[in-house]
Automatic annotation (TrEMBL):
UniProt keyword terms in alphabetical order: DNA-binding, Transcription, Transcription regulation
Record domain HTH lysR-type: where: 4-61
Domain of life of the native organism: Bacteria
Molecular function GO labels: DNA binding; DNA-binding transcription factor activity
PROSITE patterns the record matches: HTH_LYSR
Family to which this protein belongs: Belongs to the LysR transcriptional regulatory family.
Cellular component terms per the entry's GO annotation: protein-DNA complex
Coiled-coil spans in chain: none
Upper lineage: Bacteria, Bacillati, Actinomycetota, Actinomycetes, Actinomycetes incertae sedis
Entries under InterPro entries matching the protein: LysR_HTH_N (IPR000847), LysR_subst-bd (IPR005119), WH-like_DNA-bd_sf (IPR036388), WH_DNA-bd_sf (IPR036390)
Protein name (record): LysR family transcriptional regulator
Length: 290
């Protein structure tokens, strides 16, 4: 029998992440013996070994790593289904629109104003997040739609509508020698020994190689730029969070960035469709919505 229960998956994920039955049992709020028995039963049912057990804890087998990846996705999907169902049952709820903090500020302002002026339009609640978090918020049901940027954001599996295309700017310390120029090239920003480009985490949480500082949040990045520790290249509309200690210069040969509005393809919400139409109208690109 191949059916897996969500309880079994939660148990396995806890053990796989803690790599210790005792810590996993504490996290789950259950005793250790029944947890150990449940994982053993799961292994027997699947006919595979998921864990290598040793005196100090456990390690994942290759098979266990596969189940960990699949179990996380399955639990996320179950949680998203519950959140979307609860949200669908509340006709007065606002639409939740996720957006990277500091990005698309003018578009967001115009969109909120436009929705407020449309008779009967569902109100919009903006959920600001950090770089790359919009996709997760859409997938887990925390957001109904999201403003995202191609080619930087993870758009896999979403329906999208292009809204606008823009260039990029370099944000650097106002006191730096480059700040006196009118514009820069990618070669300029990539070859500044005393001002390495900041590094954001990849989707798997790892960081690309390089001398620049590892950053997690926009506020952390803004302060590092002001302190003369790093620079970055971002879409021109994302400079809303620019500090007085920053200078923004066009990067003339940087790839163009497309702002899109994204939503789940399984969504049949007329309110979401209306939001997409409003955003497209503001940007002059009316979509053909199904």
């Amino acid at each position: 029998m191949d059916d897996l229960e969500t309880r079994e998956l939660r148990y396995f994920v806890a053990v796989a992440e803690e790599l210790h039955f005792g810590r996993a049992a504490d996290r789950l709020g259950i005793a250790q013996p029944p947890l150990s028995r449940a994982i053993s039963r799961l292994e027997r049912r699947l006919g595979v070994q998921l864990l290598d057990r040793h005196r100090r804890g456990v390690t994942l087998t290759d098979t266990g790593r596969v189940l960990l990846r699949e179990a996380r996705a399955a639990l996320d999907a179950v949680g998203a289904a519950a959140r979307r169902t609860r949200r669908a049952g509340d006709p007065k709820r606002p639409l939740v629109l996720a957006s990277k903090a500091g990005a698309s500020h003018e578009l967001l302002r115009q969109l909120l104003d436009a929705r407020a002026s449309e008779p009967g339009a569902a109100p919009v609640e903006v959920l600001l997040c950090e770089v790359g978090e919009q996709a997760g918020l859409l997938r887990d049901g925390s957001a109904d739609a999201a403003l995202m940027h191609h080619p930087f954001d993870d758009l896999a599996g979403f329906d999208t509508e292009d809204l606008c295309v823009e260039g990029q700017v370099a944000i650097l310390p106002a006191g730096h020698a480059l700040a006196s120029r009118d514009q820069l090239t990618l070669a300029d920003v990539r070859n500044v020994p005393d001002l390495p480009i900041a590094r954001w985490p990849r989707l798997d949480g790892s960081y690309p190689d390089g001398p620049g500082p590892e950053v997690h949040t926009q506020s952390q990045l803004a302060q590092l730029v002001a302190l003369g520790e790093t620079l970055l290249v971002i879409p021109a509309s994302s400079r809303a969070w620019q500090w007085p200690e920053h200078v923004a210069l066009p990067v003339v040969d940087a790839p163009k960035v497309t702002t899109v509005i994204a939503w789940q393809p399984s969504s049949h919400s007329q309110a979401v469709a209306s939001l997409v139409r409003t955003a497209s109208r503001l940007c002059g690109t009316p979509p053909e919505l199904r």
